[in-house]
Amino acid sequence: MSAREPFRVGFTQDCLGRDGKPVFDPVALEPLEAAPGVTFEFLDAYTPKVTPDQAARYDAMVVMKPRVDASSLSRADRRLKIVARHGVGFDNVDVEACTAADVALTNTPDGVRRPVATIILLFILALSHKLFVKDRITRANRWHERTDHMGIGLTGKTVGSIGVGSIGREAFRLLKPLDMVHIGHDPCAKPADMEEIRLKLVDKDTVFRTADFVCINTPLTAETKGLVGERELGLMKPTAFLVNTARGPIVDEKALCRALKDRRIAGAAIDVFEQEPTPADNPILGLDNVIVTPHSLCWTDECFRGIASSAVGSILDLAAGKTPRNVVNRAVLERPTFKKMLAGRAS
Known about the structure:
Blueprint: E1 7-11, H1 30-34, E2 38-42, H2 52-57, E3 60-63, E4 82-85, H3 95-100, E5 104-106, H4 109-128, H5 131-139, E6 158-162, H6 166-175, E7 181-185, E8 199-201, H7 204-210, E9 213-216, H8 230-235, E10 241-244, H9 253-261, E11 267-270, E12 290-292, H10 301-319, H11 336-346
Helix pairs in contact: 4-6, 4-10
């Protein structure tokens, strides 16, 4: 491919709203518009998977829901050099296939860190104050039931996290003024990094046994799928709550439903499900001790602007011959073909 050819960027069609406009603030596109030799467009149709034709058409793609696997990258004339995930999770992308094809995969932790952390705080507050229960009794004019639904004070209570990465740490920063006890489990975390958020690292079972609120803040991988099941839920106190804003398959949904139905735990708040959209007859939707939202509670103008700006930034890094920010598959950076491509773009 000639160096004079434009660097082509494609956004998957689900980056557009029902009105045909970007789901994020168009200001995030301004760096692309200003970059010399770069063109971009939104795909005119949705495909559940990035196709080989699309990978041959674009040098970079911003991908929201479509999958990316080895077949997506199979054409000999493939141009695709970078997949920028519109979000922090990358379970819809075959990371090893990208690395083998010399394609960088990036995500956007800087765009979702604060928005997701705020919904963890929101869920904890809503659960502890029985917000939705009190909303229901007010609408039904059942004021006489107020004393039947006493809330739970948070001072001195323990909040625990499975995973203490970027989002988890930000959540604990927001929780600091509430004077709660902070514990967490994360094999990759360093005790010295936990001092600023006043968090004590413990083993996984201690989090489930001890915490009044157990928050899931780990990515979905082969190792974390089904990480929280009957056993872990059985360790929790009957007064404890589970909060999952990460990925649905990390928690065994049937086991969670049983624990909630039998009142073996006090309640839960989940923004994610094993199957999305979750079926209308999912029994968990009929329980009164769980708050459910459609994997979009953190979706705000701030969130989507930050995500899009981060994804665009990683693409423009590569277009300019620089190492992209937020690379997930770091091994690709040491591959000769990728290094040669990056050096060629820098020259």
